[in-house]
Amino acid sequence: MLIGRDETIADVTALLDAGRHVLLFGPSQVGKSAIIGAVARPGLMVIDPFAAVTRAQAARIRRAMDRGTICLAAARTRERTKIGYVGRVLWRFVPVRVAPLSAGAIREVIGGILAARSMQAPDHPGWLNEAVGVSQGLPGYAVQIARLACDRWEARRFLPEPGVVLVEFLMSDARRLDRQPRG
Question: Is 183 exposed, middle or buried (0-12, 13-18, 19+ CB in 10 A)?
């Protein structure tokens, strides 16, 4: 199970079991894809939240929905004008808002990663508190901060500031996205 997401997973699973299409929406790095991974199952059409859906793909999605295929999608918004061609069938989806996690849940996420990598969180309480604050309730940022910090610690025995790690992650992510072909 995902930390702090038990209720959301239960709600989404109940909607899918009832034959409803579900749209997870919320800010970037809040854990929408992780929830999709936790509830996905055979026979369910998962609409990739990071791919630009073309008109032809949207038509295939609509036909699949007409045939009874249950769809699960994610987006940063639920405004149909901002999510492209999928917006034409958005009225069929039940929107489920994925909110940022509490500070306690983020602390548990980061602490779990540090413990798994043999870096005990109590050894770095100030760093952990700052990492929780920098993550701003977004588990994606928390995971990346903890993983990159552990990598630095293992390589150089140096634990960088969480804010610096987050900026480096965001910059590398932006460079990676910039290199991907558009189409």
Answer: exposed
Place of tokens 């919320």: 26
- Give yes or no for a contact between 30 and 99, defined as CB atoms under 8 angstroms apart: yes
End-to-end CA distance of the chain: 35
For residue 155, give the 3-state DSSP assignment: helix
Domain residue ranges in the chain = 6-97, 103-178
- The pTM (predicted TM-score) of the whole model is 0.80
> pLDDT (tens digit, 0 to 9) for every residue of the chain, 183 residues total?
589 999 999 999 999 999 999 999 988 889 998 999 999 999 999 987 656 677 888 888 889 999 999 999 888 777 766 666 666 777 888 999 999 999 999 999 998 888 888 775 546 678 889 999 999 999 999 999 999 988 988 888 888 889 998 998 888 877 776 655 544
Which conformational region is residue 84 in: left (phi greater than 0), alpha (psi within -120 to 50 degrees), or beta? left
The residues, ordered by sequence, that sit 6+ positions from 169 with a Cβ below 8 Å of its Cβ are 141, 144, 145, 148
Which of these, 69, 68, 15, lies nearest to 39 by C-alpha position?
Answer: 15
